[in-house]
Specification:
Length: about 200
C-alpha cells in the first residue's frame, strides 16, 4: 500500500503516521491492497483538517474531517472512509454477483462486516413467506357452444367453409363415413385437422 502524505502548517509525527496506517489497514481488509492513498493534514484558523483520499479501481473515495485536534480529525476521516468503503464494496458485490448470490437472511453489508470482524455479534429476525399447501384453482366457466358442432355429415372442404362462415376456432363434424373430426384454427391462422379414434 502506497501512502502519500502532505502537511500544511503542521508537522507530521510518527504517531500520526501510525494512526493513519492503522486505520488504512481496516480499509485494506475491506477493499484489498489495490489502491493508492493520499493524506492531506492541514491547520487553518485553529482548526485541524484531515483529508484522506483512496483510489480503488472503481473510483475515488474521500474522507474529510475538521476538528480542534488532529488525532480526532484523522479518526473521523478514517471512520467516514470506512463507511464509504463498505458501501463501495457492497455496491460492487451486488452488481458482480447478483445472480449467483443467494439471500440468507442478512443484508450483504452485514455479511461483509461480520466477515471482517467489524460488527459485534448481532441477531437478525427473518420473515419467511409461507405458501399455501393446496394451490387454489380458478373456477371453470363452461359455455355450451352448439354452433361449433355440425349436425349433418360433411366433407373436409365443406367443414372448412362452415368453420370460416361461423368464425369458430374449433369446429367438430363427422365425415361422410361417420368418423369424428375436429378442425382447429391455430394462432397463425392455419387450420389443423384432428381425427378422433
Amino acid at each position: 500500500m502506497n501512502v502519500e502524505y502532505t502537511a500544511r502548517k503542521y508537522k507530521l509525527t510518527p504517531g500520526i503516521r501510525k494512526e493513519v496506517e492503522t486505520g488504512l489497514d481496516k480499509i485494506r481488509k475491506i477493499l484489498g491492497d489495490r489502491f493508492e492513498t493520499k493524506v492531506t493534514l492541514a491547520v487553518e484558523k485553529r482548526q485541524h483538517k484531515a483529508e484522506i483520499t483512496i483510489d480503488p479501481p472503481n473510483g475515488p473515495i474521500v474522507g474529510i474531517a475538521q476538528t480542534t485536534d488532529m488525532l480526532s480529525a484523522i479518526n473521523e476521516a478514517l471512520d467516514h472512509l470506512q463507511k464509504q468503503a463498505l458501501k463501495h464494496k457492497t455496491k460492487w458485490l451486488s452488481k458482480k454477483r447478483k445472480a449467483a448470490k443467494k439471500f440468507d437472511g442478512q443484508s450483504l453489508e452485514d455479511n461483509i462486516e461480520a466477515t471482517l470482524g467489524l460488527a459485534e455479534g448481532a441477531t437478525f429476525s427473518v420473515l419467511v413467506h409461507k405458501f399455501p399447501s393446496v394451490a387454489r384453482t380458478t373456477e371453470v366457466h363452461l359455455v355450451h357452444a352448439r354452433d361449433s358442432v355440425a349436425l349433418r355429415p360433411m366433407t373436409l372442404e365443406e367443414a372448412i367453409k362452415e368453420a370460416h362462415f361461423r368464425d369458430k376456432d374449433v369446429f367438430v363434424f363427422r365425415d361422410p363415413k361417420g368418423k369424428l373430426m375436429v378442425l382447429h384454427r391455430m394462432r397463425d391462422g392455419k387450420m389443423e385437422l384432428i381425427e378422433a379414434p
